[in-house]
Amino acid sequence: MICRAACSRQEFLELANASRNCRTTIALACCDQQQLLEPGTPARHTWIRAFADEALAEEGATALDECPPVESGVWETLLVPVCNPTEEETLGIPIKPGKPVYDPEPYLMLIEGAVSDEEAIGRYRNIIMPLIKRLGGRYLAYASGDGVVVRHGTWNEPFIALSCWPGEHAANQFWMGSEYQSKAIPARTGAGVFGVSLMRGRILEA
Predict the structure, then answer these.
(1) What pTM was computed for the model?
(2) For 109-160, how does the pLDDT look when each residue is reduced to its tens digit (9 = 90+)?
(3) What is the gyration radius of the CA atoms in the chain, in angstroms?
(4) In 3D, which of 177, 196, 203, 206 has the Cα closest to residue 35?
(5) Comparing C-alpha atoms, which of 56, 64, 85, 52 is closest to residue 150?
(6) E-state strands within the chain
(7) pLDDT tens per residue, range 64-111
(8) Could you give all domains of the chain from N- to C-terminal order, each with its CATH number?
C-alpha cells in the first residue's frame, strides 16, 4: 500500500511518530527525506506498507478510509499488487533478492508515469534490467494502472513500480552511474513522462 500526502510537514511527522512501530511499514519519508531523481517529480510525503495478503491490505486501507491520516491537504492511498518471484521470467524484471553488494540497509525507488513509445522503452529495459540485477536491485511491485486500486485520491497514471536496493550507494550507482546516464537515459528520452523518488526503507521482521 502506497500512501502519499501533500500536507504540512507537522501533520506528516505526527503520522510518522504514530506509525514508527507499525510492523507493516517499509518506508516513511517526508519530502526532504527523499531524492527526486527525475526532473518534474512532485514532492510528496510518502508512507509505504507491505501486507502478507490482499485481505490484510484491504483492512489497512479501510482503517485509513475511516480515519484519514491528515486533516488538511491532499491524501492518496493506492493498493498495488506485489510481485511474485515466480513471475520474474514472464515479466522480464528482477524480482528475486540479489546478493547485497553494499550497505544492507534497503532503499526504495518509486517509479510511475506514462509511456508514449513502447519500442524505445523496450530498448531502455534491455539496458537497465541487467544493470539492476548486477547492483543487487529487485522489484517489489510492478503494475499497470488497471491493476492498482485507488482507495483515496485521484491517481490515474498508466503504471507504477517499486524497486528495492541494498543501500543508498547501490541505488545511486544505478541512477547516477555512467551506464544509466550515457545509455539508458538517451534510450528513453521522449518516450514518456515519469516521476521517480528514492527513500530509505526498512526490512520487515519475520
Answers:
(1) 0.89
(2) 999 999 999 999 999 999 999 999 999 999 999 898 788 999 888 888 999 9
(3) 17
(4) 196
(5) 64
(6) 2-6, 25-29, 34-36, 45-49, 74-79, 107-115, 138-144, 149-152, 159-165, 192-200
(7) 766 666 665 678 889 999 888 877 877 778 887 665 444 568 999 999
(8) 2-200 (3.30.70.100)
